[in-house]
Write a structure and sequence with these properties.
Layout lengths: L3 H19 L2 E3 H8 L3 H13 L4 E4 L5 E4 L12 H14 L7 H14 L2 H8 L4 E3 L12 H13 L3 E5 L14 E11 L2 E8 L4 E6 L3 E4 L16 H9 L10 E7 L3 H4 L7 E6 L2 E8 L2 H9 L5 E5 L1 H18 L11 H6 L1
Length: 347
């Protein structure tokens, strides 16, 4: 029967090992302070880790200290609850990355799941996530692991979720309105961000929510009968919604132009557009955007001559953009603008 003393020692060893894995060098005095023990106890615990196969090296110097070196063999790994769940979530995502490590990640996930305590295994097994490709994005707000696990559990049990949602334009309004009620269907990770795809009965429509902006309410709502996402392809559905399209995975505003640039200078910035080389210094580009104004502005960023093939709304957007640019160029320092005779006639 484990004693209270042996349990405390085991926990302290786990804490010591976690600290040694965080940074390369640790002064002995700092480790003792972090663990709230004496320097002598730290030395004894280091000896115990060495007996378990961990290559902990002593660092010589005025302060002295310890360093966890890489070994020739993999010793037993120790994780706290949060680390174990994080590892299992990462492996589950790696299975669907398409990076060529799917089989190895699946085997590693099976191995980790076998040794997880039942309380943690149930949480990890409940996590159902779809990974889809998206444009690269910098590190942004991170979703809480507990929120992800709660959402995944609700998806599996087919229960409505209730949550407060922080608006990007009114972040302080969260909690001032009734909680949202959504039938959760898919938990998706795209470009490093987590999204919940769900059906909103009050709106009779699908909605997409960022998980890092959600604060779940307890308890969940009633059970529901799942419905199919339009098109049944989660990746295509999500991509369509990000393009502002209700169903088809296509931009609502698409245009075709000829740019006075070689194709190799257009392709890196064409996104999902279609690039065709017409000859030296001439490239055809078929692309789209949320609106005609946004499409015209995006094309203007190529900083070259543009010939619009069609359609007419794109030509109109360029004309409007030209008028706005002219007014901006004529703006005075006092905020007023010089009238454009041509513009007044056009009115």
């Amino acid at each position: 029967m484990p004693t209270a003393s042996s349990t405390a020692t085991s926990r302290r060893l786990l804490s010591l090992l976690s600290l040694l894995q965080v940074r390369r060098d640790w002064p002995g005095v700092v480790l003792a302070q972090r663990l709230d023990v004496s320097a002598r106890t730290v030395r004894r615990d280091v000896d115990r880790l060495r007996e378990l196969g961990y290559p902990v090296q002593a660092i010589k110097g005025p302060d002295g200290g310890y360093r966890l070196e890489a070994g020739n063999e993999l010793p037993p790994l120790l994780f706290d609850d949060e680390q174990a769940v994080a590892l299992a979530v990462a492996l589950r995502l790696a299975v669907g990355t398409g990076a060529g490590i799917e089989e190895a990640a699946a085997r590693a996930l099976a191995t980790v799941s076998q040794v997880l305590p039942s309380r943690l295994r149930q949480r990890v097994d409940a996590l159902e996530v779809t990974a889809v490709e998206g444009a690269a994005r910098g590190v942004g707000p991170q979703a809480d692991t507990r929120v992800l696990l709660d959402l995944s559990a609700a998806i599996r049990s087919r229960e409505e979720v209730r949550f407060d949602y922080r608006s990007p334009t009114r972040p302080n309004d969260m909690g001032l309105h009734p909680p949202r009620r959504v039938q959760p269907h898919h938990l998706v990770v795209r470009s490093g961000r987590w999204y919940l795809i769900g059906w909103v009965p009050e709106r009779e429509d699908w909605r997409i929510y960022r998980a890092d902006r959600m604060t779940p309410r307890i308890p969940n709502g009633p059970r529901f009968t799942p419905r199919e996402v339009p098109g049944t392809d989660i990746a295509a559905f999500l991509s369509a919604r990000f393009k502002g399209s209700a169903n088809a995975n296509a931009w609502p505003c698409q245009g075709e132009v000829i740019l006075s640039l070689p194709a190799d200078r257009v392709s890196p910035f064409a996104g999902d557009g279609v690039v065709e080389e017409l000859g030296p210094g001439r490239t055809r580009l078929l692309t789209g955007s949320w609106s005609w104004a946004a499409l015209a502005a995006t094309l203007a960023r190529f900083d070259t001559e543009i010939e619009v093939i069609g359609p007419n709304p794109l030509r109109d957007a360029f004309a409007d953009l030209s008028r706005r640019a002219g007014r901006a160029a004529g703006s005075r320092l006092d905020g007023s603008s010089k009238p454009d005779p041509a513009d007044s006639v056009a009115r």
